[in-house]
Design brief:
Length: about 290
């Protein structure tokens, strides 16, 4: 009996652990020589004598948050970066993430940011799984925010990054990448981040087809309107539109007629660019990228 109880507790603890973002509120830091690093996150602090990832206080909420700042190093500027896992300091690319086996709808959190040049920072999340048939890693879902070159947030601002799924299976790994600058960093560009969390859930393809079928969006790109059509057994459904900063710019609750949902969004008052359309039907969620010209 004790063995069974221990096994149940282990499985519960493991599934709970896999559902969490390590040190998501950046409360835990470890001192290394003359600097500190956020536990569970890879930074460039151990590579350069300038620290581009530092501890800020107070948090929102909590006692601390992550401050990423691009800084001059010799004749170049080092991008303020952090990866939820291991960061390759040579390629500036993530080497690995953390174990994760859920299918969330969005990554949420709080941030402040400012750029002094023309290369804005970004926040991105990628869910992947190992495919034993091809001996390669497959992307299950991804999402990102790239801040506008002219935008700034001088106080804590909530953000939402909708995840777009390209694979119906469950992932086994997650990588979150935070950058103060883009490909051409400027000294003192910064991105402050706190309170990361996943929200919502998206079912697998086989489960999802029971509630959302034949989702089509047309025209895409769109310039005056976009039409959404799908079939579902659910009586009430929600259609939402998010811009590239993760802000919700449109939401509508719609019913169905004999299992068919047909809805039109007037896009003439929306800014040109890329958007994520989210359709929620029962416990199923599907995200699609659309372009408004």
């Amino acid at each position: 009996m004790k063995t069974i109880i221990k096994s149940i507790l282990f499985l519960f603890f493991t599934s709970t652990l896999f559902a969490q973002i390590p040190n998501s509120g950046f409360e835990n830091w470890t001192a290394v020589s003359t600097y500190s690093v956020p536990d569970g996150w890879g930074t460039l602090n151990n590579t350069y004598t300038v620290q581009t990832a530092t501890k800020g206080t107070p948090g929102s909420p909590g006692t601390s948050y992550l401050k990423l700042t691009s800084k001059t190093y010799g004749s170049s500027v080092i991008n303020g970066m952090a990866v939820s896992g291991v960061l390759d300091s040579v390629t500036m690319q993530p080497k690995s993430g953390f174990p994760f086996s859920q299918r969330p709808a969005s990554l949420t959190g709080k941030n402040q940011f400012m750029i002094y040049g023309s290369s804005p920072g970004s926040l991105s999340v990628t869910l992947t799984r190992w495919d034993s048939g091809t001996n390669s890693r497959v992307t299950v879902a991804s999402g990102n925010i790239t801040h506008s070159p002219s935008a700034m947030a001088m106080s804590w601002t909530n953000f939402t990054i909708p995840l777009t799924y390209s694979d119906g299976n469950y992932p086994d790994s997650c990588i979150i990448v935070l950058k103060a600058s883009g490909g051409n960093p400027t000294n003192n560009d910064y991105l402050w981040v706190d309170n990361l969390a996943f929200s919502g859930s998206v079912t697998g393809i086989n489960e999802k087809q029971a509630t959302i079928n034949s989702l089509s969006i047309y025209p895409n790109p769109a310039n005056a309107k976009v039409n959404i059509h799908f079939t579902t057994k659910e009586a009430q459904n929600t259609i939402e539109l998010y811009n590239v900063t993760g802000a919700k710019v449109y939401t509508e609750n719609v019913g169905n007629s004999n299992g068919n949902v047909v809805h039109t969004i007037n896009t003439t008052e929306l800014a040109k660019g890329v958007y994520i359309l989210r359709v929620t039907s029962g416990n199923a969620v599907e995200n699609k990228k659309i372009v408004i010209e």
